[in-house]
Amino acid sequence: MTRTLVVLAHPDLDASRVNAALATGIRDLPDVTVHDLYAAYADFRIDVPYEQRLLTEHDRVILQFPFYWYSVPPLLKKWLDEVFERGWAYGSGGDALHGKRLRLATTVGGGEKLYQPAGLNRFPVTDLLLPWDATANLTGMSYEPPFIVHGASSITDEELAEQVRLYRRLLTAASLRPAALV
Fold first, then answer.
1. CB-based contacts of 149: which residues, under 8 Å, 6+ apart?
2. Which of 25, 79, 81, 156 is such that its CA lies 20 to 30 A from the CA of 63?
3. Is CATH 3.40.50.360 correct for 4-181?
4. What's the mean pLDDT in 96-123?
């Protein structure tokens, strides 16, 4: 059985409708650990050995976060900087993550049309997330296609319920890709 660690990084999950629904929708799944960084580290003091142990105990890592300013929330960036240490995650002797799988699950406020060459943001979200593909490569992980919820600021209850269903399915069917889930 594949053990999945969902690293949830939302600065205000209580005020979040979409990320909260996604997280709630998967908490009951077997072999899935939902780890809320902001709940664990409100003071931004990360327990690096604990985080590294969590990563080594799981086969697949999903980073779930709201996508804003073309990046990740600050605590997730700090987590990456501190936990993915040279000599542990990469570099000489840094093979702790080799063979694991990395996927992003992100929510985007704007609709998909805004993230196209002719759109306001000029690039698809998948392109803007490419540094994570490089991170996976550097650490010996395989990068899986991201799970993206567009239009989070205006999503209907029905659309949100469908996204939660797709997210659950993604986590329970390790071999399926988002395109195969439609």
1. 18, 22, 106, 107, 108, 155, 163
2. 156
3. yes
4. 88
CA dihedral of 136, 171, 16, 127, whole degrees rounded to 10: 40
The domain limits of the chain are 4-181
- The total number of residues shown for the chain amounts to 182
| 3-state secondary structure string across the chain | CCCEEEEECCCCHHHCCHHHHHHHHHCCCCCEEEEEHHHHCCCCCCCHHHHHHHHHCCCEEEEEEEEECCECCHHHHHHHHHHCCECCCECCCCCCCCCCEEEEEEEECCCHHHCCCCCCCCCCHHHHCHHHHHHHHHHCCEECCCEEECCCCCCCHHHHHHHHHHHHHHHHCCCCCHHHHC
Tens-place pLDDT, residues 145-178: 999 999 888 999 999 999 999 999 999 975 444 4
Prediction pTM value: 0.91
Query: Does the pLDDT of residue 182 top 70, yes or no?
Result: no
Look-up of token digits 């969902």: 6
Return the residue matching tokens 């779930």.
64
- Please report, to the nearest 10 degrees, the dihedral formed by the alpha carbons of residues 62, 94, 72, 118 taken in order: -90
